[in-house]
Amino acid sequence: MNSLEIQEYVKGLKDGKAKTDENGDEVTTKVSSMVFKVHPDQKETIKEALAKKKEESGTEHDNVALEQITLGYIEGNTGKPKVTVAAVKKFLGAMTAEKAAALVIDVHPSLGEDDDDETES
Question: Domain locations in the chain?
Answer without folding.
Answer: 1-31, 34-79, 81-111
